[in-house]
């Protein structure tokens, strides 16, 4: 039976999403009709599946793609156009969607057919991508509970539903808690130290909140916990009492009242542990690693231990240097520097010792100029051209841009959306790349990939383009690296194209690799031009950026080690019904991996969406795991000489043709060795981070 809902754009199923026509009211009827259609198609496939590529993999892929197209749009809008109405629609259809996905994952007829396909004569004729897709399908069925029966299967499915609801609720609570706090300042003394760009943003936020006459010069100014506001405030505000107020609000987000995530954390951890046990794993971390490159929790602990040992003494010295500097400046808090002081005093040292501050740099990084420099780099090392295609694709917000990617011959090979600016009322924080359309070959025709690139930098203010911090520039390069991984794939089987089927702890390789180019002289001087004069970034400022690259690096690494270790501890050693609470685990790990101990009320876990509402559960270590790969990959360019144009071009083509082109068609270690000629070493990471001599 085919169910139709007339003119529902969510049921188109192919092509670019018609964001100009999609309304919240389309979601419930559209997804319900889609699931009814797909359930019929899936039942037919189960009844007729044959253990061949054409009789099994291709029809299953069509069902998965059809589901992914519609639900992917809804999920994307939840991140960039969140609203109470959208949440309600999402939550209404989510249970049925999870149920259908679980049914697909637990299909015994398809699982048996995949195993027969692996054992068939056809197997040896498959290329590596096809074999990886079949192997992954078998593993995913097993991890989806295909082997469970009776009460165990019912319980597993209940857990899947409950986790879907809890993780969505967790994310919504963080968004609501971030949005709920604001601090309105009205006098010049209250904004002492704040740079012009933050004053302009804070005045705009005040106008958005109803203070129509707010100006950067006279206020009022509205300060929020959204990072483009919070970060600069903590670096520059001379009002220590306000810094403390903001810091305490930031680290206790979503930890009390109606948006309290503490109960959600307890439930999520308990359910994940129970799910792992049902599948025969001792812990959720063991289950998580079944899909990853890292061989064991022990291997992760070893890497974290190495990084802690390499960074701890440096971090101790960094805090001591901050205290000495504050004392030298006569600061009353010098002997008792705490969490709301470190960013402020670190910024003062950066200004004095390196002659560098974010506000001095911002005018050199207007977004249009940064994009031009980024695209020029991509052209140089990957032989692609990126051209504006605005107006050829519907968008979800007027600020969103659309681009096409052309190969060396001038033929389109991919497209991407760019949504660059913070919109705290409707858009979740952070930055990400997501899939809009996957590459695939349909009836002999290659379908080109399309990516979403989403950032959260300060919007244009007072007629000037968005002026980026250097960290914003790095973030854009990072997400663009993910986008290249998705867009430059040469794999025609959707299941292994781009980032599909890439082990999670290797997927950050291209993104972190791209960040290194932000410190390359020719690249940076190409993209950094003054917004008013067009003058290039002065050489002395470039040298200061490079010199400051490893400033506070020990503290930065130790912070990430804390997050990664806490994640593994909660998903591997923590017992939901044991004697230790989640808060106590947080404090215990912090004692091993922080120089400044967290506040007793520190509840950063309540806003740790990476592991409680994202894909990083028992996987936060992946940032470091992939940084080993990415630093070593960039070292290949350093070894041939970054000023040796021909060698850089040749190395860039090799990176494109291996790391970017092969996607998930081979194991990440094979892909890395195809590029580098050997297994990765940690030395480049430690050198780039300033922890061993260059």
Mind explaining what this structure looks like?
- This protein is of the alpha+beta class and 694 residues long.
- The protein folds into four domains: 9-147, Endopeptidase. Chain P, domain 1 (Glutathione S-transferase Yfyf (Class Pi), Chain A, domain 2), CATH 1.20.1050.40; 181-253, no CATH class; 258-353 and 553-620, Neurolysin, domain 3; 362-492 and 517-550, Neurolysin, domain 3 (Orthogonal Bundle), CATH 1.10.1370.
- It is built from 26 helices and nine strands.
- The chain has helices spanning 27-48, 53-80, 84-105, 108-118, 128-143, 150-180, 196-208, 227-236, 240-251, 262-278, 284-289, 297-328, 339-353, 358-361, 367-382, 470-487, 509-515, 521-527, 539-547, 553-573, 582-593, 609-612, 622-640, 645-662, 668-676, 683-688; strands spanning 182-185, 221-224, 385-388, 401-406, 412-421, 432-437, 440-442, 445-447, 450-457.
- The strands form three sheets. The protein has a five-stranded mixed beta sheet, sandwiched between helices. It has a two-stranded antiparallel sheet with strand order 1-2. Strands 7-8 form a two-stranded antiparallel sheet.
- A hairpin with a 5-residue loop joins strand 4 and strand 5.
- Helix 6 (150-180) packs antiparallel against helix 10 and helix 24 (645-662) packs antiparallel against helix 25.
- The protein is globular and about 80 Å long.
